[in-house]
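Task 17 of the worksheet. Students: predict the tertiary structure of the chain below and write it out as structure tokens. Keep your answer in the requested format; marks are given for formatting as well as content.
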Amino acid sequence: MNQPARVLETADVRRLLRHVRAHRYPLRSETMILLSYKAGLRACEMAGLDWTMVLKPGGSLGDHLVIAGTIAKNGTARRVPMNPELKLSLAKLHRAAGRPCGGPVIASERGDHLRPRSVVNWFALLYAETALPGCSSHSGRRTFITRSARLLARTGGSLRDVQELAGHRSLSTTERYIEGNRDAQRKLVRLV
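Model answer:
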């Protein structure tokens, strides 16, 4: 049986962000990490993300990522509210790209959309460079879903909200993504 992608701690994500400052395309790299860890996007969604899915009709940055059914797994479109750190990174990337109204958010050297396999390979290389074993392109998504589930009590939300953010058809799929926390379990049992 395949081991699920590793869920990273906040310090690990910060380490990834520091590491990519030395990359050839640091802003694109930062945005890719944040799209994964702060929005839970899949590799295919990052590869297909277009500025029209990020911008308001007037050309300014929106408050949501609109994941179109054409790029989402199983054609399940969704809207993901933008995390402030991700929004700032997207704003910088948009300015650096000359404020385009369309085209790929995560562009190849030729200005085209990356292929999903290229995104998967990029993350594999990143985790190898940073010595984070057990990670894959799905680690950010799994971390996003796990963190979201853990923060539900603070927001008044439900697991259904996490399911919708993840774009899962079934709640049982969302549940498989969520990693347990032994310390939280001990605290919880003490409160019972």
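Marker's comment: The chain has a mean pLDDT of 91. The CA atoms of residues 47 and 114 lie 5 Å apart.
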